[in-house]
C-alpha cells in the first residue's frame, strides 16, 4: 500500500507542478471565495424538505458507504491481471437449483459458484475435480450465511482463500483466458468470469466518451434532490443544500454523534466536554429475508437494531460538513477544445473526523484511461479526533508530513477541471462537500445504478462491481484505496454505456 501511494504521487508530481503553476493564478479567485460572509446566511431563504433518514440505516452516508466488508480481507485484484490457465470447457457446469423464498437468491449463488469454478480450474487437475470443489465451497458459504449480505462477505473470503491456493502460483505464467478473449479492456480489468460471449470491443475514449456520458449526467433537480452542494444565489463562496432534514436542536454546544446517535456536549473550542466513549456499529443496517418475514441487522456483526455497538471509539463525532457551507469554490467555464471533449474524470475522497466534523484527508482523481492523475494526502484544518482508518485507509503516519491543505487541493482541481468537465463518483455529493467544490456536470453511479427499494437506499459500489463487472473491490484489510473506488466508477460507466448501446440495437 504505502509503496503504491508513493508511486501514484510520484507520477502525479510533475503534473501537479504544472497544475499548481496554473493554479496560482486561480488562487486569488479562491481566496476571494473563502473570504465570504457569515456561514449562517446560507440556508435561511431556502426551502427545506424534511427527508429524515435514521442515522444508521442511511446507506448514502459516505464513511459507511460501500465498505461492507472492509477489515476482513486483503487485496486480491484491482489493477493486476489475474493470470489463469487457458482451458477448453468441455463439461457442462453445475447449476444451483432454484428455491423459492431462499435467503440467498439463486442467481447470486450461481454467480459465485461460477467464480469459484473459475478459480478452482486454475489448480485442479480436472474439470470434474474443480466443479466438485467449487460446489462444496459454495455449499459451505451458503450454510454459514443467514442472509444475502453475509453470504456475499463469506463468499468473498472463500474466493480470497481459493486465490491464495498454493497451486495457483504454479500456473501464474499462463496466459489469461479472458485476457485473450476480451482484448485490451478485459486484460486491464481482470475479469473472473465473462463467458457470455459478449465482449467489450470498442474502447470508449475522448470526445465520444464525453458525449455519451452526458446522457447520464444529473439534472439540476436531481442535484438538489440528492443533496449536492449548489451555489448560493447571492453569496459567492457559499453553498446551499436542499432536502436537508429539519434540525432539531439549535444549541451550538450540543451535538448528535453521527455514529452512535448519542447527544454530547462540546465547549467553545469544539472539544467534547465529557470524556465519553462512542460505542457503535460500523456496518450498515440490512433488511434480510427470514422465514415468515424480514429482519433488520447490522452487517458488521449481525447485531439487531438497538443492540450494543460492536466497536468502541475514543469519543463521539459529528459529520458537520453541511453546517459550514462557506469556503466553497465553483468550477470555471472554459472554452471546449475543437473536438468537443470537456474532460472526463472520476474522483474519490477520504475523510477523517476532526473537531469540526468530517474533513478531507485524501483525494484521488482518475482520468478516462483509468490512470491516477492526482492523488494526495491532505492536512485537515482542525484537530483530528478519529482517523477513520477503517474506511479511509488513511493513517496518522500518512498525514504526519503533509502540508497540502484543502485550499491547495481546490486550486489544483479548479485548474484540472472546467465547468464543462464530467465528474464521476459514487455518491459524489459526499466528496464534493469534503472538497467544498461546486460542480454541475455530475454522473453519480449510485443514481445510475439505483437500489431496487429506491431512496434513501443506495447500492454499495463494491456490490455494483461484483454484479456487473464480476470483480471484487475494497477487500483490503487496511481500509480501502480511493484510486480503486474512483477507477471502479469510471469502469462502471464505460460498461453501462456499452450495455445500453446493446439494448438499443
Ligand atoms: Zn456491529
Ligand atoms: Zn458516538
Can you tell me about this structure?
This protein is of the alpha+beta class. The protein folds into two domains: about 1-70 and about 205-240 and about 320-505, Ribonuclease H-like superfamily/Ribonuclease H (Nucleotidyltransferase, domain 5, 2-Layer Sandwich); about 85-175, no CATH class. The chain is about 35% helix and about 15% strand. It is built from 15 helices and 16 strands. It has helices at about 1-35, 105-120, 125-145, 150-165, 165-170, 175-190, 205-215, 220-225, 390, 395-400, 405-415, 430-435, 445-450, 460-470, 480-505, and strands spanning about 230, 240, 255, 265, 280, 285-290, 295-300, 310-315, 330, 345-355, 355-365, 370-375, 385, 420-425, 435-440, 440-445. The strands form six sheets. Strands 10, 11, 12, 13, 14 and 16 form a six-stranded mixed sheet that branches. Strands 1-2 form a two-stranded antiparallel ribbon. A hairpin with a 2-residue loop joins strand 6 (about 285-290) and strand 7. Helix 2 packs across helix 3 (about 125-145), helix 2 runs parallel beside helix 4 (about 150-165) and helix 14 crosses helix 15. The longest helix is centred in the N-terminal third of the chain and has 33 residues, at about 1-35. One zinc ion binds next to loops.
Which ions, cofactors or small ligands are bound in this entry?
zinc ion
Which radius of gyration do the C-alpha atoms yield?
23 Å
Q: What integer is the average pLDDT?
A: 75
**How much helix, percentage-wise, in residues?**
25-40%
How much of the polypeptide forms β-strand, as a percent range?
A: 5-15%
Shape: globular
So what's the oligomer here?
A: single chain
Low-confidence stretches: 1-86, 166-201
- So what's the CATH class of the largest domain? Alpha Beta
Query: Span from first to last CA?
Result: 43 Å
CATH topology of the largest domain: Nucleotidyltransferase, domain 5
Structural class: alpha+beta
What is the name of the CATH architecture of the largest domain? 2-Layer Sandwich
Tell me the number of strands. 16
Quickly count the helices: 15
CATH 4th-level superfamily of the largest domain: Ribonuclease H-like superfamily/Ribonuclease H
**Number of domain modules:** 2
